[in-house]
Amino acid sequence: MLPGIWSTMKTEKRNLTYVQKVERSISTTYRERLWTPFINAIKQYKLIEEGDKIAVCISGGKDSMLMAKLMQMLTRHSDFKFEVLYLVMDPGYNEVNRAKIESNAALLEIPITVFETNIFDVANKSDHSPCYLCAKMRRGHLYNKARELGCNKIALGHHFSDVIETTVLSMFYGSQLQGMIPMLRSQNYDGMTLIRPLYCIHEQDIISWKNYNDLQFIQCACRFTENITVSDDGSSSSKRQEIKQLIKKLKQTNPNIEKSIFNAIHSVCIETFPGFKAEGSSHSFLERFEKEE
User: Fold this and answer.
1) Cα 152–80–59 angle (5° rounding)?
2) Measured between alpha carbons, how far is 60 from 100 in angstroms, rounded to an integer?
3) What is the Cα–Cα distance from 217 to 85, expressed in whole angstroms?
4) Are 70 and 159 in contact (CB under 8 A)?
5) N- or C-end of the chain: fewer Cβ atoms within 10 A?
């Protein structure tokens, strides 16, 4: 390579803007850990189709902000046309968290649309399952706003680690084997579909990318739990964090345990279960057993 060309390349690299450096980290340093599994999930699960108009839902945390940046990059490189809106629902954030979300969106050059709700006020006054009520209301507001804006899909930032933890949580504390699928048609909002583009991305790789770029996102903006500190190592008093720590401990003796759980929910052998649920109805192995007589 000629010396003059090499000098020009080094100058161009030095002159990259901050957001260009962030995007380059995704396409180079973290390509195999972020970009490739992101694209694989899109293709394997057919999450995006031509003509889709997708509301990318941003909570302000590391997961949803990375998802927004990945989706933004995908719109530039996709073989087919689809539209993306970056939707931020304010459920009642305090001023610090609201400002942090807006400043991070500006820093990453993500053009967000913000709309306000009173979800925190309503949920925190509930004496029965405020977290469940909050989650249900959040989903409803997001679907309504997305439909109002002409979207046919909403994208949420659940990742590979969420899938594993949810599976184990439902078995240990919910007395059922229940997974988290990558795409789901809404039962209450006709024509609306939920997709999870980060389905194959590990949380630790998101944390690593965040630290690499010296990014700081909000962690938990919930008023109900705002006195509980949740760090990147997953330490807090919640059941989900308890499961997170359990899996972390199990990985010390079985490094592939997460992959095994993930593969297991893709290869469920219904014939070996004494009971299962499908389309809202419970079924027993006896139904099949008696037919074989």
Assistant:
1) 45
2) 8
3) 20
4) no
5) C
